[in-house]
Amino acid sequence: xxxxxxxxxxxxxxxxxxxxxxxxxxxxxxxxxxxxxxxxxxxxxxxxxxxxxxxxxxxxxxxxxxxxxxxxxxxxxxxxxxxxxxxxxxxxxxxxxxxxxxxxxxxxxxxxxxxxxxxxxxxxxxxxxxxxxxxxxxxxxxxxxxxxxxxxxxxxxxxxxxxxxxxxxxxxxxxxxxxxxxxxxxxxxxxxxxxxxxxxxxxxxxxxxxxxxxxxxxxxxxxxxxxxxxxxxxxxxxxxxxxxxxxxxxxxxxxxxxxxxxxxxxxxxxxxxxxxxxxxxxxxxxxxxxxxxxxxxxxxxxxxxxxxxx
Length: 310
Ligand code: 13P
Ligand code: SF4
Prior knowledge:
CATH superfamily of the largest domain: NadA-like
CATH topology of the largest domain: Rossmann fold
Bound molecules: 1,3-dihydroxyacetonephosphate, iron/sulfur cluster
CATH architecture of the largest domain: 3-Layer(aba) Sandwich
Shape: globular
Strand order of the largest sheet: 2-1-3-4
């Protein structure tokens, strides 16, 4: 089928299903273009909570669709591909966190969980953060309890530096962001004199040290738009380049490859295609379904996050 026909079919299905299509900035360009809303994890969570549509078709990875369902349980949440997982989420299985907390009960940790985690981990957390609000939320954490930050050690180290708060870090990482190297950034900077390096906080310390600005995918757009510079080296998953080029057309954006690959791609994010989006809208399947007791336990720290990041 031609792409134009597929897009027309998706548009029609959105109407008949009373559906909203939400997409993360790492989605394929054609999915971003057909979506009703494209954003970072924080903006997507807010949007999912507020939508009054009957159906949310979530184009991102599984934990993002799950988060939409936790926040808006009366809607039908479908996703194009259930195999769209996340290596960062996988680096903190809920049973491992539960046994760690049990073994260290006397410490009474205040658990801060990055949103890139499973519902089981969210249910064990006191509060959730995204890369867009982590600083503010860590600053608001109680000072009379030790903080445990899960699952991303890189984001955790960055927020600890920014806030001056001492935190114990879970040893998790994203397989895409951990592959950016200092040499790759230096190479790109040498080839594009005068450009600014903009980097996601999931990158390693040696990479973050070379950045002119570190922020979430959403904030990359406002930073580049408002900056006086005209060329930017973007150190995150390549999907954001489409959004940047579309929303800030007068500037130049250079993607950086990872070790052994000229383009940094999250293969989980790229599992979603227009065909699969059409199918999930048509069949209302695969659908995210959550046990209510677990959903309620995971909802509390998410609501705390939304309240603190108003
Ligand atoms: P953002 O919240 O910045 O969109 O990041 C999500 C993500 O998966 C980064 O790898
Ligand atoms: Fe997860 Fe990394 Fe993919 Fe983001 S880029 S969804 S953190 S695997």
